[in-house]
Amino acid sequence: MQQFVIPCDALAAGGRSAAAARAAVLTGGDFHYLAHVRRLRPGDSIPASTADGARFAMTVRERGRDRLSVTLRPIPDDEPPAAMPITVAQAVVKPAAMDLIVRQATELGAARIVPLLTDRSAPAARAHPRLPRWQRIGRSAGQQSGRRPLPAIEAPRRLAELLQEAPGTAAGKLAFQPPARGEADFDLPDALDPAEPVWLLVGPEGGFSAPELDRIAGAGFRRCTLGAAVLRAETAAVAAITAVRLLWHRGARQRPAAP
């Protein structure tokens, strides 16, 4: 584990910020992990952060039967948070695949993960109860990878609702859909401006339906493919985020140097 991510509800001072609280009480699974797996004792310290990316040295002040009381000392941040302005809107797929997408999107630096309800996705009744699990997976992935800050993992939303929210500019709005038989590839842009946010739409197994593709195009999204191979949803999401990171680096190299 690269860092321990302090849950908001464990913080003192109303659970709003570790900077104000400077203390936390850890119970449940966090207590078990820190006390029985990491075997922390009073006086022991480990690196920690909050969901918004603030860094702390977390020191055990008191160990009870079922809780740890800790103090939080802010650490000067010589490494700025690594989140990139990527919104990953992923159609809800099978549970194991969706769990993997959330984990890998967190590790790759997505700022926001929005589970999408589409014509071919898992139904809303099965998607909404999984939100707490996805948020736990995002936190776990952030702890293992050292990712700061954690992505916002939102409740499932309808595709039409998300399309209304997306900004009007088209440069960073990309929809990934495999080409149909006999259909030409849809190329990625040559580069992306790293100062601009990017919205990625990734469909379910089988892709977006034809009416959905019409609505996506009408909202100004650029349709893209990742080659002729048909990728599993979890592979497509990781490939799409990785492609955007590379296009951002290319865009950064092409920007004129500041005077």
Radius of gyration: 21 Å
Largest sheet: 7 strands, parallel
Q: Which structural category do the helix and sheet elements fall into?
A: alpha/beta
End-to-end Cα distance: 42 Å
Written as H for each helix and E for each strand, in order along the chain, the element string is EHEHEEEEHEHHEEHEEHEH
Strand content: 15-25%
Task: Report the principal-axis shape.
Answer: elongated
CATH-derived topology of the largest domain: Alpha/beta knot
Mean pLDDT over the full residue set: 85
Supply the number of structural domains: 2
CATH domain class name of the largest domain: Alpha Beta
Which architecture name of the largest domain does CATH use? 3-Layer(aba) Sandwich
**How many helical stretches?**
8
Q: What is the helix content?
A: 25-40%
Name the CATH superfamily assignment of the largest domain.
SPOUT methyltransferase, trefoil knot domain
How does the SSE layout of this entry go?
Elements: E1 4-5, H1 18-21, E2 23-26, H2 28-37, E3 45-49, E4 55-63, E5 68-74, E6 84-91, H3 95-107, E7 110-117, H4 124-127, H5 131-145, E8 152-153, E9 157-158, H6 159-165, E10 173-176, E11 198-202, H7 210-218, E12 222-224, H8 233-254
Parallel strand pairs: 1-3, 6-7, 6-11, 7-8, 7-9, 10-11, 10-12
Antiparallel strand pairs: 2-5, 3-4, 4-5
Helix pairs in contact: 3-5, 3-8
